Amino acid sequence: MEVSARLRRRIRPLILRRTKSAVAAELPEKQEQIVPVELLPGHRRTYDRRLARERQVVLGLLGDLQRNRFSILRSLTILRQLSLAPSLVDEEAAAGSAKIDALVEMLNEIVAEGHRALVFSQFTSFLSLVKQRLDREAIGFEYLDGRTRDRAARVAAFREGDAPAFLISLKAGGFGLTLTEADYVFILDPWWNPAAENQAIDRAHRIGQDKPVNVYRLVSTDTIEEKVLALQERKRNLFDAVVGEGSDSGSHLSADDIVGLLGP
Fold first, then answer.
1. Going by C-beta distance under 8 Å and a sequence separation of 6 or more, which residues neighbour residue 126?
2. pLDDT tops 60 at residue 8
3. Contact at 8 Å (CB) between 199 and 174?
4. Do residues 32 and 187 lie in contact, with contact meaning Cβ atoms separated by under 8 Å?
5. Helix then strand then coil, % of the chain, to nearest 5
6. Nearest residue to 249 via CA among 235, 259, 263
7. Which residues pair with 82 in a beta bridge?
8. Confidence of residue 248 (pLDDT cuts 50, 70, 90)
9. Which of 31-40, 168-177, 237-246, 247-256 has maximum average pLDDT?
10. 3-class secondary structure for 158-197?
11. Which residues is 93 bridged to in the sheet?
12. Backbone angles phi, psi at 250, to 5 degrees
């Protein structure tokens, strides 16, 4: 702590940081909440088996982290996808996702009250499953990812229409959009860099918003998603200790980080 405090004193005259709360003090309140979601029993067994396999693979690759980084990240990505739905990793796996069940239940409640929501995921394959489920539930939505050609048209359709949900890939919707028609935001999977999540949330919580914004992060319990959240917090705390509140270091994963993500 003494070292970080000394470093902060040295760099403070060189850095000008303007937080959103200082620049846009008139913004309405934003409330954020983590929503734990328990895996379905069959899903839990599938996840635990794959976790044991990927942990063994990754621990064997950490001796040369730089050379094996791609393979390690692939294993971590598999576990992150498996935290969402088994079919994202194995097409033969039984359909079903407790996280989609939770999302639909919450959407039905807020739609009944006249609210609208932005729904973000890094994985377009998972958004496809959400689309299928919303179709079955007769919940209207618009959709945007990095491959959407008529991006402006889709944004206009949401802003000018009455679809209660806008499904957006995290990269496609992380910046450059104003979607203050929505006052609820759902983050379906935690990303390595929480600053990217904050940029997505800011599509709704920005100048022009006149309603309080509610943010829900759906997190599968006892999975790598909980470890990613903890990692986000450590990286954020380190950055805040040196620079100040409200950002993220964007550091690469270290060997210790990776071990922590795969630990019990």
1. 81, 84, 85, 88, 188, 189
2. no
3. yes
4. no
5. 50, 15, 35
6. 235
7. none
8. very low
9. 31-40
10. HHHCCCCEEEEEHHHHCCCCCCCCCCEEEECCCCCCHHHH
11. none
12. 65, 20
- On whether the pTM is more than 0.90, the answer is no
How many angstroms separate the CA atoms of 80 and 63, rounded?
A: 23
Q: What confidence score (pLDDT) does residue 245 get?
A: 44
| Cα separations in angstroms, 79 against 40, 56, 73, 88, 224 | 16, 13, 10, 10, 7
Among 207, 216, 212, 158, which Cα is nearest to 185's?
216
Whose tokens are 């000008």? That residue is 16
Tokens 């009455």: give the residue. 162
Tell me: pLDDT of 20 over 60.
Answer: no
224: nearest Cα among 251, 250, 200, 253: 253
Residue reference for tokens 């922590």: 260
Residues 215, 257: Cα–Cα separation, whole Å? 27
